[in-house]
Amino acid sequence: MSNLKMKEAALIYLDRSGGLQKFIDDCKYYNDSKQSYAVYRFKILINPSDVVELDAELGNHILHQPLKAAEVFQSVCFIAVKTLSLIGQLQTETQINIVLKLTHLPPLPSYGLDLCEFPLDYTSQRFYMMQGIVIAMTTVTKYTQGARFLCSDEACPLSKGFQYIRVHVPGATESATIRNDFLCNLCASSLQEDRKFRVLGDKQIVEIIATKGLHAFQGHSNNQPFRFQSVTIFLRDESVNKMNIGNEYKIIGIPTCVKTSQTAVCIEANSITFCNSKVPSGISDNFRCLLSLTSSSCWKFTAILANIFASQITPPGTYNLLKLCLLMSLVQTTDRNKELEDCLDILIITSDILLIDRLLNFSINLVPRGIRHLVSAEIFPTLSRNKYGTGAVSIQAGSALLAKGGICFIGDLASHKKDKLEQLQSVLESRNITVYIPGKKFGEDTDQQMTFPVQCSFWSFVDMDSSSRRNAQKINTLIGQMDCSLIPANLVEAFGLLINCNESSPCHPFLSTVQHTLKKAINPEGLLYAASRQFTTEDFEKLLAFAKNLNVEFSLEAERMTHGYYLASRRIRTDSICGSKLSASALKYLVFLSEAHARLNLRNKVLKEDVLIAALLFETSLTLKYDRVSLGGRGCSEPRSCHCTPTWVTEGDPISKQTNKQTKNVLKFKVLLQ
């Protein structure tokens, strides 16, 4: 009687939710088809809240006994087909394969599966919700959705018809559907598959890790040992290719135990939802007050941010230019499911690699996807054999794809091999990576290739002391004469910003850094400066999270100034033999820098003041890249705004002509940075 009541409730739910009409339309497709089917597959969308409100027992079955709930809907659908004469070829109830797709699960702790907890419940065969980041995925292969078996004894009544239909159920392996040891229930003879009625579906295997597992890639562990393990997700049919490497998803599925060379807990995915992180509603009170106090200038707020940023690592007032660039790169990251095109790649030339390493490592931890590349790992995707024996090749993410929407800090550039540097240069120029899959090696008939977008900013540094030791040369402090022979010129050109952080520079006082290091050695957890106490790391995290989600647009004046500077810069860096040294991507980086400065100022519109700072930073980088060729003449170790007026400001070009007042404003910003 209870089963009959649940069937009635299932029919009412299908009628109210529109599922019955969709079922009738699907039946019409099968009935009109000229092909013969042994299995008729129907997908039914289930809202657990609505079902529980309609009938608690049916809702309980869906949530805790999904296989039995599918049998209830199977019976209802079979009766509907026969009553309404929807499919003339359908003979038995077993031919109907019902797949229940859940919209959500109740927001209760018992329905959550924390991938960091042990042991995992894989025996209850019910739905759980878990959340994780994709770190590997296979190519798409086939699996058996359903098959028809016949009794091998021709005298047996079951040697004909559709009595023996086997379909895939969540958690079942291929051998559970297709085997040669099935026996007839009537005469105990062996069953044989009727291969012409086999139904195939698509299958893909994905590996995810808990979001907490990213701490292993962020360069900090609080001096506590830890480990993480990936969990395998099986995607089938409609879910195939719904997940991308590097993205974070919420997955509703049924845990199961799969035995290969070792026992592993896997998840049969039922529904997949992309995770969008919450955007903070504002910034901290301290930063709000600072923004109000500096509202009279378009540059004071960012200059002060650069001055006090990372005071746990370096004293306030040191490495300001580098810290400003780091903040601008951080504010161009994203947590949204959109293509990250505003990448700001930074290459730093330094002789103090320990301090720079600490500063960059501190900075990447301010965003959710700040990844420090491990020496033992790979930067870009690699191939391996799938451990579940499906014949598919597994593509491992690598640090760059894990840092999707964030920052990938790859350490000392000179520590990477030549082939990796060439691959990095290709990625920086094209913003994608192509993985070639040799068919012969992985048991395929043909070779394949897959292309993945690389949506992160790369940070790296070059150790000038190492360069000088290898070449037995003394570093000249003039930017235009620094030795970068260890790094290919084309690779240096591919980075958007090239920054010099030399200890001998007046902007990097040696004494204050030494005093800071000694104080931190005595009191590692202490806050040495008032800025550290007033503007905490959490305040910076909240500021960056809010600023990077601002939508900015260029004002007409800013757009004209950007194009004017770009055209003037290309013209002055052009010779008759090699043409222009300035690549077409230069305009793109100018736009990114301008947008980043506007976001860092918490503005929605890019002003001409933002473009001036973008030009200042970009000009400094160009001076490093192209020897001593600069728009104003000779090279210098400081941003040229300190002592020289750019040609594009004073020239009479109708597009790029600017006023002397704007030049004085650039000088004013430099003073603020110092």
UniProtKB/TrEMBL annotation:
Residues 540-622 form the MCM AAA-lid domain. The keyword DNA damage applies. This is Minichromosome maintenance domain-containing protein 2. One of its GO terms (molecular function) is DNA binding. GO terms for biological process: DNA repair; meiotic cell cycle. The keyword DNA damage applies. The gene is MCMDC2. Gene3D superfamilies: P-loop containing nucleotide triphosphate hydrolases. Pfam families: MCM_lid, MCMDC2_N. Plays an important role in meiotic recombination and associated DNA double-strand break repair. Keywords: DNA damage, DNA repair, Meiosis, Phosphoprotein.
